[in-house]
Amino acid sequence: MNILQMDMNLLKVLYLLTSTGSSQKTADKLGISTSAVSHALARLREVLNEPLFRREGHRQVPTLFALSLKEKLTPLFSSLDGELFGHLQDAPRHFNLVAPPALHPILLPLLAQKSTLANVDIRCQNFERRSWRNDLLEGSIDMVIAVGDHQQRTSALRYALIGSTRLVAVFGAPLQQRLQHKSSLAFSELANYAHYYCHPWPQAENELDRQLERQGLQRRIQLSCADYAQLPPVLRAAPLMAVVPQPWFSAQPDKRGLFTLPILDNLDNLDNLDNLAIGHLFSHYRQGEVEWKKRLISALHAELRPYYQ
User: Fold this and answer.
1) Neighbouring C-beta atoms of residue 58, cutoff 10 Å
2) I need a surface site. Which of 116, 261, 267, 277 has the fewest CB within 10 A?
3) Residue 151 — φ and ψ, nearest 5°?
4) Considering only CA atoms, which of 141, 142, 140, 157 is closest in space to residue 20?
5) What is the largest distance, in Å, between two alpha-carbon atoms of the chain?
């Protein structure tokens, strides 16, 4: 039978129960009793002639068949979340954001303001180079701000290009004497210096290093620590270079003793800026969000766009 032709109320129970694993949480979300959830589950088992779940302790663990049905229902229900399930007016507000650490100097002051003014519990976790599709569809994440567009697309999610920016080489006084006569660096010259690697993903997954490898080059990573906050004191203490997005440096409050050089492809033609040193920023979020989340997402876009043209 066509699963999408079944009673919508039964499908809502099936979808939520596979997501929460809890009859009580499913009942709370739908505003019904746990006995009504049990009754709906019994009807589903009868109609589909399938057990759908097995109980392990207090959890309802979906079968592979139930998970396959959820896969078909997720794009529909995630895009119509507010209309299908509703939202309690006085329910606690939670917003889970995924963002690269380089954006923290730009975003965290705004998030701090929004969390207090709108009484929102905001959780910000570091972006990783992986698919966030299921996290977004299932609601464990509300918004992903992604470096590059590597996400599996679906109609239930909205994808927005925030903008693009250049990567710059940042260094301190210990390296300045060596670089003081330069106005820019060729992309290939990055292999001539020792680097501080501050990204939260492995070097093998970093696009800049992939591009260098394609040219038969490799950066020498002298110090690696996934922490942008330590970049200023590190570069002031040692003759190391770090490659970061221009917006990070622009929003960095502690620029004392730091210098930057643009990264170009062809030093003979400064108008020919190589796309290899340009980073793109995207956002991903559900289509059917409640109004206060839409306003927060719009505020985050507005905060970032002046930095990303």
Assistant:
1) 9
2) 116
3) -100, 145
4) 140
5) 78
Distance CA 27, CA 50 (A): 22
Closest of 129, 62, 122 to residue 93, by C-alpha = 122
**Structure-block tokens of residue 8:** 């919508």
Residues 147 and 127: their CA atoms lie apart, in Å, by 8
Give the pair of three-digit tokens for residue 62.
């979906």
Token reading at 226: 């996934």
Backbone angles phi, psi at 33, to 5 degrees: -85, 160
Query: Residue 81, Cβ neighbours under 10 Å: how many?
Result: 18
Is residue 80 within 8 A of residue 86, CB to CB? The reply is no
Kindly give the pairing relationship between strand 93-99 and strand 120-126.
Answer: parallel
Q: Distance between CA 124 and CA 95 in Å, rounded?
A: 9
User: Cβ atoms within 10 A of the Cβ of 263, count?
Assistant: 22
Query: CA-CA distance, 88 to 281, in Å (whole number)?
Result: 33
Which residues, at least 6 apart from 106, have a Cβ–Cβ distance to it below 8 Å?
A: 247, 251, 303, 304, 307
